[in-house]
Amino acid sequence: MRFLITAGPTREPIDPVRYLTNRSSGKMGYAVASAALAAGHEVCLISGPVSLAAPEGAEVHFVESAREMYNTVQEKINAADVAVFSAAVADYRVAEEADQKIKKSDDLLTLTLVKNPDILGNTRSEFGFEGILVGFAAETNDLEKHAASKLTRKECDLLVANDVSRKGIGFECDENEVILFYKSGESKMLSLSSKTDIAIELVSEIDQLATR
Ligand code: C5P
Hints:
It is built from 5 helices and 12 strands. 26% of the residues lie in helices and 30% in strands.
C-alpha cells in the first residue's frame, strides 16, 4: 500500500527571524515511515523541520508552516491508501507576519493569533480521502474521552492516543506508550516500548485493518 505520513512540528513565522513552534521531535512519525517501508509499503513523508535523517526509500517533502503542510497533504493524499497524521501541527499562527524584524520598543508586545486549518479534520470532508485514516492525540487529561471524541469528529479509522503529562514518553523521547482506539469501539494498549517498536506494531495493526 501507499502511506502518506505527516511528522514533526510546524513553524509559524512571526517575522523573518522568529517563529512559534512546539516540542515535537518527529521521531514517532519517522519511525512509522521506516516501519511502513520495512513492511514493503511505499511512503510519502510530509515533514516539518526536524533533525532526523530521512528514511531511505521514502518520498520526502519538507514543509515549515501548518498551511504549507495542509497544501502538500492536499496535493498528495489522493495517491495514498493509508494516511497517518503524526505531526504536531501548531493550532495557531500569527495573524500578520512582519516583513522586517520586530524591534524592541514597549515593555509589552501583543501578538494576535489566528487558528490554523485542521489538516486531519479536513481529510475526509475537503480532500475526499477514502482510505485508512489514522490520527494521533496527545492529551494531558481524560485521555479516553478526548480520544473517542477526536476519532469520531475527524472520521478516523484508528486513533493513537498518548498521555503527554507522563515523563519519559511522547514528546522529545525515544519511548512511547499508546492506546489505540478503533472506529469499531475496540481499544488496545501498546505498552511502554521504543518508538521503533511501537511503530512496527502500529503498521501491523494498519495492515490488519486493510484486510478487514
Ligand atoms: O491537535 P490535535 O490533538 O487535535 O491533533 C490531533 C490530530 O490531528 C493529530 O493526528 C494531528 O496530526 C492532526 N492535526 C492536523 N492539523 C491540525 C491539527 C492537528 O492534521 N491543524
